[in-house]
Design brief:
- A hairpin with a 5-residue loop joins β6 and β7.
- 25% of the residues lie in helices and 34% in strands.
- The longest helix is centred in the first third of the chain and has 18 residues, at 14-31.
- The chain has 3 helices and 8 strands, in the order αβαβββββββα.
- The protein has one domain.
- The chain has helices at residues 14-31, 53-69, 161-166, and strands at 40-42, 78-85, 91-94, 100-105, 111-123, 127-138, 144-149, 153-156.
- The strands form 2 sheets. Strands 1, 2, 5, 6, 7 and 8 form a 6-stranded mixed sheet that branches. Strands 3-4 form a two-stranded antiparallel ribbon.
- The protein is α+β, with helices and mostly antiparallel strands.
Length: 167
Amino acid sequence: MPAPRLRLGLRRPLPWKLAALPVAAVIVAACGYVPGLPPAVDIPPGVSHRLSVDQVQQTVQASVRADAELGRVLRPFRVTSIRLVAPFEPVSSNDPDGQPSALTFSTDTTSWVVSAEGTFRDCASTCSIYEAAVIVVDDARGLIVGRDPDGPMTLDATTAHGQAADS
């Protein structure tokens, strides 16, 4: 009589393993981002562009790096989504509480709409800092033409407008 086999781990048949995949997909969809994965990229067919996705990410990262050098870093930089939009295409984003905004915008050129996290700073008489933003990059010029907070904002009264403008 052969010796009995020891079962140290729980072995599930293939249907159980396959059933776990939709559950994992739902969790990923609910979170919106999984560390280590690249950002979601949406380039509609028929919309021509000059910049690559990497060039857009580098443009946004340079801006965030400059903002972070002015003060404390709120969170590490990462791009969560990049979307190419045609001229005059309406774009909506989320309010800082995460709910869809009633406000929409459009640009008169092909643009990239980037959702990113990091340290963002907008200065007037005082500086507002926030950790998530929607950034609009003009495709033809490669310049940031708009930025809107997409998360909680705080005021940083220690940095005056002139200091932020000098860098």
